[in-house]
Amino acid sequence: MKICPKCKEAIGDSHQECPLCNYVFTKEDNERFEKERHELECAAAKEMEEKRASRARKRVIYFLVMMSFYFFPFVIGGSLSAFSKNMTFITVFATAGMAIGTGVMIAGIIGGAFRCPYCERILFKNYGNHCMYCGKLLYYK
Questions:
Q1: CA distance 52 to 34
Q2: Are strands 2-3 and 10-11 parallel, antiparallel or unpaired?
Q3: Domain ranges of the chain
């Protein structure tokens, strides 16, 4: 979209003359519009890349926390039950760890760590490199 410098109306890129005030766009005007469009596209691409990197960091953090809640209760419960000859320690720790790990996983999904940065829809397990809804490339290899 171009903005007419005379009447400040937005018109299409293909127009060489403003339909409202008949201002004729010069070569310098067209170059300025092209430069502004390029700057906006670069800023949008940079913002999208920052969003992707942020979500990738969130996914790693959620994964590590979730796995620690899944794994460590078995180790702690197993160690405690080995000393006490009582299996209730491992049962309690394992159940609590699984519940907390599942809660962390749900928080990660709701919190946006597993969302498409373009269409904002939730991506489920094994979504690959492309969004299953909009088809856009999610991550660089």
A1: 27
A2: antiparallel
A3: 2-110
Q: Chain centroid to CA 98: how far? A: 26
Let me know: does 116 contact 70? Beta carbons within 8 Å: no
Q: If you ran DSSP here, which 8-state letter would residue 24 be given?
A: B
* Cα angle for residues 129, 122, 126 (degrees, 5° grid): 40
Using N-to-C axis directions, what is the helix angle for 88-110 and 27-84, rounded to 10°? 170
Q: Among residues 128, 124, 97, which one has the least CA distance to residue 109?
A: 124
**pTM confidence score:** 0.48
Task: Quickly count helices (H) and strands (E) in the chain.
Answer: 2, 2
Mean pLDDT, the chain cut into blocks of 10 residues (141 residues total): 81 84 85 86 84 79 77 69 66 76 74 73 71 77 43
Q: What's the token pair of residue 132?
A: 């299953």
Q: What is the pLDDT of residues 97-127, one digit of tens each?
A: 778 877 777 776 676 667 777 787 877 666 6
- The single residue listed with the structure tokens 């899944």 is 70
